Amino acid sequence: MSKFAFVLVIVALAVCAQGWPTYEDDVAAAAAAGNWDKVHEILNRSFGHRFAFMPQTGVSDVRSLKPQGGGHVYAESDVNFKSSSSNNGQYASQSGGHKVINNDGAVSEYDYKP
């Protein structure tokens, strides 16, 4: 019986140790591809349920803001990432950022390297 339990524990550990992709991998892949709306969507999905008080304004929301009834609007959205890894002494690093500024409906965007 103890051999059976041992084998069962080994199988359970093997299943658990396989791992699943983390949201960090998804964020890094989307950011590396320059898909900032996807980055923001992933981050909102991950953090939104824990911090419900945080505004859920995304890059596309900032782009679409328009002044209402003689008012003014100013909004900024800034998304950036840095990813690095070291594998047997081989170091790799990536970083990037994207900023959207909406000043009374005039939208400007740029990519940058943090």
Describe the structure.
- Residues 83-114 are annotated as: Disordered.
- Keywords: Signal.
- Residues 1-19 form the signal peptide.
- Residues 83-96 have a biased composition (Polar residues).
- This protein has a three-stranded antiparallel beta sheet.
- With 114 residues, it is an alpha+beta fold.
- It contains four helices and three strands, in the order ααααβββ.
- It has one domain (2-49, 57-112).
- The N and C termini lie far apart (58 Å).
- Helices cover 39% and strands 31% of the residues.
- Residues 51-56 have low confidence and may be disordered.
- A hairpin with a 2-residue loop joins β1 and β2.
- It has helices at residues 2-17, 23-32, 36-47, 59-64; strands at residues 74-87, 90-103, 106-112.
Short summary of the structure?
The chain is α+β, with helices and mostly antiparallel strands and 114 residues long. The protein has helices at 2-17, 23-32, 36-47, 59-64, and strands at residues 74-87, 90-103, 106-112.
Q: What global shape is seen?
A: elongated
What is the number of helices? 4
> What is the domain tally?
1
Mean pLDDT rating: 75
Distance between the termini: 58 Å
Supply Rg.
21 Å
What's the total number of strands?
A: 3
Low-confidence stretches: 51-56
Strand order of the largest sheet: 1-2-3
In which range does the helix fraction lie? Answer: 25-40%
Helix/strand structural class: alpha+beta
Strand content: 25-35%
Helix and strand element order: HHHHEEE
Please give the largest β-sheet.
Answer: 3 strands, antiparallel
Keywords: Signal
